[in-house]
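Q: Entry one of two.
A:
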Amino acid sequence: MSDITGTKKIIVPVISPLSSWLTKMTAILGGISLFINVIVVFSSVIFRYAFHSPLEWAEEVARALMIALVFFGVATSSGKGGHIGIDLFLGLLPNSIRHYVVHGTRWILVCVSLGLVISSYNLVEITLEQTTETGMPLALFYVPVFIGATVMFIATLEHAFQEDKKIVLRSGIGVICLMVIGYSCQILLPDYTALPAVFMFICFILGIIAGIPIAFTLGLSAMVFFLSNPTLPFVFFAQQVSAGVDHFVLLAIPFFLLAGAAMEVNGMSSRLVEFIVRGMGKFKGGLNMTTVLSMAFFSGISGSKLADVAAVGGVLMPAVKRTKQSNEDAAGVFAASAIMAESIPPCVNLIVMGFVANISIGALFIAGIVPAACLLIILLITANIFGKRINVADAYPVLMPRKQLIIGATVGLLMILMIGRGVVAGIATSTEISAFAVVYAIVVGRIAFRELTLKATIKLFIDMSAMSGMLLFIVASATSLSYALTIEMIPQKCADILVSIGNNHGAWLFLLVSIIILIIFGSVLEGAPALIIFAPILVPIAIQLGFHPLHYGIVMVFAMGFGLFSPPIGLGLYATCTICGVTMKDVMRPMLKYQLVIFTGIILVALFPMVTTWLPNIMGY
């Protein structure tokens, strides 16, 4: 009998059924939290506008449900192994070492989850007797954090034991040795006040190199900081993690994700994409041009670039293969189009940018339209020049009836216009508009196409709660790390250096340095944490140096997106390659032309602020 069998017989049969059952429970609870939240926000808007009687408790309940959604969702994702990290550096290690490092990262996930369990339990204890302004028990905000962390701990523990016994034990001992070394340093250097910051920095670097999922790399760095800082109670760890998603405005993220997914399930996406293919297919490079246009349309619905790539790629890649086009070239177009679409509302990163930098989200939505249109045009030209002609009959051997196609495309476009009109006119907040988008996508899609069954709808809410939890847990962990950085005065020190660069060498050099910083950190971090960490530092400096906040904000979002979807370590490009069924090394050369074009466009947007500020000025922002 092999070692791995022995390990599974001793440990996994005890943990695995429990983990599986708990994951199913959190999946259901997450789906219910998302469903109730849509109802609460939608009802709040109806009561305020139709009956002139706002629901005073709605926002507070929505925030509590938001925390529940995030931590039930991330627990579900952990149970399913849904987190991703950068494995580029692991390829440089010998095979004999790599297995232990990879498995060591599983133990790190166990440690971070356990730390969150302990910290959140303490937080629940502290808040048991406290209430909110409306009389709601404050502990209700933090109980889901404890439950989600507990399920996450059990799930990560199960994954840690699913390996050869030798690897499990040796990697575990290696992680324990690192802990002992850290603890010994703390005892031997009690007067070295910078030690927590040093530990935090080391954990961040090692986490990235070892391929630990981004959310857990950020969480590990923050957790180690709180553990090693004797002046801060460990309960601050869970408090800051939950505070990172305790904001009504961030509800727009899961709502827009849900609306985009509903469009995909009920057939709106496939109809809209086929409609574009049949219109653009007669042109040279028609399929690549379809990718660019489809990414632009779907960015105005789903809000998430990875969700856009998944939705459009799922529909278009079969057509790419049927027409014998290059999968690698198609992946390059998807990545470049995703960067272009970073500033098309209601992009998740625009919402995060507005939230952390205190910029009007509606104004950012409007400011991003013209720059995105400029990048869209140059990408379409590039796709036309380098693309090949296709036969639409090859792409779609069975064509959908024209009437169904037009109805489907019209319904999808009306949703885009509804979102855009709501943002531009200021009729409602981005969160409220996103709730309307969800109801529209589900109700109208059901009436128009009858493809969204009750079973599919339930699955939709459960899947999107898990996806939202995974995405927003990154935001939560980044917020916790950002708090630790603030305690150490690191943002202020960085600000002093950057202000000096701007004052001594010119504001435009500061802008260039900002772009480089965001490209680098956008590649190793998912977009949101890069913005959460750097936007509060960079935006005030940019304003001080004379840059318009809307112009600078859009440039930051573009630069971050460029890093996210660029080789060799862009997380977004990894996901794009997976969806397109290609490898990173095969994509790098075909996508170079698209990357150069999009980078040139970003520099032009940075150099000419009028491109960004013109439309907001007309709209009164």
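Q: Entry two of two.
A:
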Amino acid sequence: MADYLVIVESPAKAKTIERYLGKKYKVRASLGHLRDLPKSQMGVDTENNYEPKYITIRGKGPILQELKKDAKKVKKIFLAADPDREGEAIAWHLAHQLGVDIESDCRVVFNEITKEAVKASFKNPRPINMDLVDSQQARRILDRLVGYSISPILWKKVKKGLSAGRVQSVALRLIIDRENEINAFVPEEYWSIAGNFTKGKSSFSAEYFGNEKKKVKLTNKEQVDGIIGQLEGDSFEISDVVKRERKRNPAVPFTTSSLQQEAARKLNFRARKTMMVAQQLYEGITIGKEGIVGLITYMRTDSTRIADSAVEETKSFIETMYGKEFLAEEKPVAKTTSKAKSQDAHEAVRPTSVMRPPAAMKAYLTKDQLRLYKLIWERLVASQMAPAVLDTVRVDLLNGDVRFRATGSQVKFEGFMKVYIEGDDDKKEEKDTILPPLEKGEKIKYEEIDPKQHFTQPPPRYTESRLVRTLEESGIGRPSTFAPTLDTIQKRGYVTLDAKRFIPTELGGIVHKAVDEFFPKIIDVEFTAQMEKELDDVEEGNKEWKKVIDDFYKDFEATVEYADAEMEKIEIKDEPAGEDCEKCGLPMVYKLGRYGKFMACSGFPDCRNTKAIMKPIGVTCPTCKEGQVVERRSKTRRIFFGCDQYPECEYVSWDKPIARPCPKCDNTLVEKKSKKGVRIQCTECEYEEDVQ
């Protein structure tokens, strides 16, 4: 019989830890929280110092009873939930339910699930950290007060099923503000002039820069024609050559936020998927004879710090694999990337051992696990490598008072770039642009001068990675909240994704307008960031959590009462759809539902006929050859294309088909959207072309 009971959150984690601890330890999983605020009511006594009313979560009773039965048979109970606020709160709730003294050495935490880390943590148990618990309680209760106060008003004044939350309302505001910027944007004309130059057998391009004294912005064709008219002869003189050596430093190891952003850029993972796969890698994977091994450290962190032992192991690996010259000369400075330091007790997200390279793990991991592990592994290795060295050259060419400029760069030493280069939403990866040897005073002929008209573009809509970055930079939310926040605003039908970018829906606009008018503080970025700071102060033991809640709720309660009394009911009128119901003959109308607009019979509730809005795109179905391809939306508001003869024809595609066949194989051509733009590709062969 076991002497000790260890309680963790998940069965996978329990299985891994039990293997490390041996027969004296029985490890069981609570499957997350067993106790929480009730769903059916506020669950917070605002008249009694915000005392929470916790109940056993529906369906968790049997788990609790089994844990109580196991607890009676052992000498001591260890609570080993995850090493963060939420894990500390789970441990605290379990302690109350199982009668464990929270001031006893009952709490064990580990940043990685490896044999050494787990055994070390059990040698150093500690009491439950009530500052962490209070911080989690404060966030939970604050979110409950906001959500359960505003949402009923939205149900009453707008429509049922709506919600507003502390972080989700700010995220929605950012998306809507960006959409308003795009709609208000007025394009401005500008021009560029490219010159194609030759020297011997080499050619290179240069752009118009200005005159001999300063840079000049080109705004119209008349200006461009005037500059081209100033050119004398067919050659330029090189007036200046500047050569420099530039160093490029590696990115620091991953935080939760930067991992979510990079996985979105490079792996096309949604934030929720990134966290789900990372959890699997953290909890443990069966690796041949080694058995179950946790492959990465804990994935909810704001820190880029890594343990000295991991640094030394990584440096040794780099020296062996790539050579001493690829080692960083000094240890990179670790820092927190968020305004908050709430999860800085942990390390960065890194492999538990760099000696398990992705290639060696391929046989044991799923495709998604391998791709994410490879990203985390490469990021750590690169972070300890030497900077890349680039030779750059800038050349100015003069013809009279007209100056062109050419720039080139070449990688002189790969450094960290041999392993990994960080992605960027705004920049393209650097490529070698090699200029021929050029000397000051030299005459260079041009073959062509090519003027082009351009127009400024509006700011881009938010991708998941951009929105996560903006929320983090603004101090809104914390690592564990980003994924569920983005999920919520989509599930509520407030936003939709098109080409991986967020677009607010009509419903989202209505909700935002109502919240903005009556609860402006809730969607104020600075106010929400300040609230996050105060909650972090609770975690650091600098503020009392009930005082933080009280300072907020005094004003908020009055605002709720005012909104309930003064907010006018918003009537979302049905629009005629222009066709009759095929079941009863009454006119069909467009209604606004949780997942956007849909068609319904005006005879509701006597006739309950509904159907999705289908937008023909002028393409015959490539499968049945009889139906028409229509644009539709999934329940998550994502656009897809299908045959209007469904369910008789089951053709479906995420990519938009076009109305001509592939010139090579006669199969279907589709539009493929990516960060680089839109390309036309064949669904069967390798044929592709640029969009004209």
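A: Comment on entry two: The chain has 17 helices and 29 strands. Confidence is low (pLDDT under 50) at residues 333-344.
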